[in-house]
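In this section we walk through a basic example: taking a raw amino acid sequence and producing a predicted 3D structure, encoded as discrete structure tokens. The instruction is simple. Fold the sequence below.
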Amino acid sequence: MKKLLDKARATARQLKDRGDIRKRLRGPAQLTYAIADSIAMLSPEAWTQAAARSGFFMSRQYLLAMEKVLPANIAPRYALIFDRRDGVNVPIAAMVMQLIDIQLAQARPLAAEAKSRKWLAPLTEKIEAASQRILACGNFLTFGQHGVAFAGDNAADEIDAWHGVAEVLYRVRQSEKLAGKTHFVMIKDLHAPYTTKAKTLENLSYRYVETEPDMLLTLDPAWKTYEDYLGGLASKYRSGIRNAVFKPIEEAGCVVEHLADVASVQDEIHALYRAVQANANFRPYTLSPAYFAALKEAAGDRFRCSVIRKQDRLIGFLISVADGDTAMAYHIGFDRTAAQDLPVYLRLLHAGIADAIEMGCKRISFGRTALEPKAALGAKPRAFGVLVRHRQPVLNKLIKHVLMGIEHDDAPERNPFKKPVNSAG
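The resulting token sequence is shown next.
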């Protein structure tokens, strides 16, 4: 009986605590904000103080460069979150936001789903013609938690900052009503260690939706060259790579090299990017040819572009950017006709490993597509998700299903590396 009473009291306390948290979050945070349309409008010192620990993609240098080449359907917004301490406003977080207008026709799975569900078919044409406006905390041009930077490592400050994030998103959404209705509010690409504290916003009607995982390859500190990586693979994987990936590329007379001058071939790079993008299930935006050179200029020594040339023609490229200890291998393009006969995509992935090792990175983030070949490289899934808040129940549930990719593939289990020697005997 005592155990039942104790359990009942514990449940009651949990419900009260949850209610207290919900009540607190639904009120204004005890914080102050600076919100701007351009990163140049905010204090450089305050931004640097808030974002110093959050890497390249939250840096003013990167954000200033990207503003000049953002896709036409994306508009940036930024915010600094301050806590007033001893009469001084102290920056505790920085936010990157984007407003994006998306035609639902850009989402291919919708038509396929309409065919499989007769009740949905009459709505397909109407939905695909609709334009949806999304306010996202995050960056559509990258993957990962590049929406919020925290100035310190105080857990209480971080929880308060997430409360501030929700309030900033509310303020921006309200102010944007003059330009049109915002259909969704999203906090994108959450992963550990951010997910737990961010999910307190579920008390504000945000819903956490798991997306496809990021494929993360951890690099052994002993690997100083790409050959060291190959040496760490089990023999069947190593011989498979040499025979099925490297040999066909070499026999076709192709050369793999670093591209030093991106600007001079930006139209070729862009055409290869479009060839891959055109086949994607979801295409929320299209990058401009000038984007790639602008990224190289902003990233400097952090930037690598590996290309495959066949004679004088580019048939593939992979761009990697070092974000601290992590290489983001996140822009890829290739000639789809050439890829029918040659393992262009796989060869580019291996070039990405060589580039990451050369830049001294500890891991490679390969992103959320093509899970099988990335798992065969030794990459492991890192759970990704988004927090999404929507208001139009029927139509937006259909749209949310398309945009968020609720049904996603699980990464296969692969271990291509040599088994460790059992020193215990």
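Looking at the output, two observations stand out. The first strand starts at residue 32 and ends at 36. The chain is about 40% helix and 25% strand. In the next section we compare this with other chains.
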